[in-house]
């Protein structure tokens, strides 16, 4: 009998291909089959063995190249063929990545698997934008929230389950990082304002964080939907709501002043 191959559920990091872990790279190099997602930087596939089978499982909002069940079926089938399998996902596999469902499916079949974490886009994009998610005296907590459970949301990796408690999040958390929220920005903004979040709260939009195409904009919660429309914000993007978002501007001003002094 063939021994089932190890399945590694791997985080590829937030976009910049250099932000992958050493452990993830080692798994990629050893893989015979790689199932990768839309948000994975394809440059990373260059690290894989030339003979490795590369399977695109891309899902864009609302349209699925492969259903979650099909992906899980393939992970199991390749493992049972004795293949060394890597399931490569954008960011971290356990943060809105459906990695948990895949781990459960593998565990249920007794398939050996491991999970290799990645830098989630909230962490990567905030760092690359000069927005500290916590900041002494300003932000003592942050939360990663899906925006796709708002009215009109999709059934993406954040979909399903009970609605998000914007009433509680508006007050209990200092910095909110909202994934998959671009399509529902108006609803999210309205929910937070309705539940007492100040319209003056600094709010950032980060598109394609950590990549060469990154764009970051800072506005206020009251105005953010207008900004998003004006700049034609597109996916993948994050919404960061909280006083910490204003630190970006402070950093830029200080850098500018220093450059003027030095120059
Ligand atoms: N597992 C991933 C999240 C997948 S859900 C992670 O840990 O980052 C997909 C959502 O992630 C997108 O809708 C977007 O909100 C966010 N996202 C992923 N990559 C991003 C990037 N480079 N810049 C901004 N947002 C990103």
What does this structure look like?
The chain is an alpha/beta fold and 263 residues long. It folds into two domains: 7-119, Tetrapyrrole methylase, N-terminal domain (Cobalt-precorrin-4 Transmethylase, domain 1, 3-Layer(aba) Sandwich), CATH 3.40.1010.10; 122-249, Tetrapyrrole methylase, C-terminal domain (Methyltransferase, Cobalt-precorrin-4 Transmethylase, Domain 2). Helix content is 31%, strand content 20%. The protein is built from eight helices and twelve strands. The strands form three sheets. A five-stranded parallel β-sheet has the order 3-2-6-1-7, sandwiched between helices. Strands 8-9-12-10-11 form a five-stranded mixed β-sheet, with helices on both faces. The protein has a two-stranded antiparallel sheet with strand order 4-5. The chain is globular and about 65 Å long. The termini are far apart. 46% of the residues are buried. The structure holds S-adenosyl-L-homocysteine (SAH). S-adenosyl-L-homocysteine binds next to helix 4 and strand 12. InterPro entries: 4pyrrol_Mease (IPR000878), 4pyrrol_Methylase_sf (IPR035996), 4pyrrole_Mease_sub1 (IPR014777), 4pyrrole_Mease_sub2 (IPR014776), CobA/CysG_C (IPR006366), Siro_Cobalamin_biosynth (IPR050161), Uropor_MeTrfase_CS (IPR003043). Keywords: Methyltransferase, Porphyrin biosynthesis, S-adenosyl-L-methionine, Transferase. Its EC number is 2.1.1.107. Residues 7-224 form the Tetrapyrrole methylase domain.
